[in-house]
Amino acid sequence: PPARRRGRHRLRRPARFRGDCFPGSRRRVDGRRAASGGGTTGHRPSGPADADPTRHPSDEGARTVSADGDGLSAESVVRLRLAIGRLNRQLVRASGDQDLTAAQLSALARVEQHGPLRLGELAAREGVAVPSMVRTVAPLVADGLVAKSPDPQDGRSQLLAPTPLGLETLSRIRRERTALLARRSSRLTPEQCRALEAALPLLELLLEEPG
């Protein structure tokens, strides 16, 4: 009926619910259209990567390292990160038959070096929360790599120590990764080997957090 039609025309959506009142809403719609291959309305997210499409956004932090003239150049920082990351992945693949995560392997090695340890002490040395360390240690105990024993000084606590299987696993992983580096370094000239040896103390300094 005409009266009902007129009433429907009088209904208007409040301005606060309109998409054009939210600056980000149109960008989200445009982003979905762009991701699906559709057209956009001309909005384009801005960011550091726009200035140079060949530069990854994660490399932006490298420019700040040497902005004041100190430290490595931005290019050198990126090259160092890529070299360390790729070499680490290759070392992991060298012992690829083991199913330990990086966190589990680190915890196992820490227990070997400083054990027996309470769970809280291990978490503090690894720089993680105790609940996170509980999840890390549980598979090590289940697989027989770490053993729990009562703490003689505190009956409510338990001590963590590597089992013979855990020690053998660590030894095997180290042998396999050391063999990979030995093969790679054998391709270097004597001069390159000396230069790499001279750089080792500097690389070790990068492991330390600033005080």
How would you characterize the overall build of this protein?
Helix 5 crosses helix 7 (130-142) and helix 6 (119-126) crosses helix 7. This protein has nine helices and three strands. It has a three-stranded antiparallel β-sheet. With 211 residues, the protein is mainly alpha-helical. 58% of the residues lie in helices and 8% in strands. The termini are far apart.
Short description:
This protein has about 210 residues and is mostly helical.
List the helices and strands and how they pair.
Elements: H1 2-10, H2 23-35, H3 60-65, H4 74-94, H5 102-114, E1 117-118, H6 119-126, H7 130-142, E2 146-151, E3 154-162, H8 164-185, H9 190-206
What's the N-to-C terminus distance?
Answer: 79 Å
Overall body shape = globular
Number of strands: 3
Helix coverage percent: 55-70%
Strand order of the largest sheet: 1-3-2
Descriptive terms for the model:
3-stranded antiparallel sheet; single chain; 58% helix; mainly alpha; globular
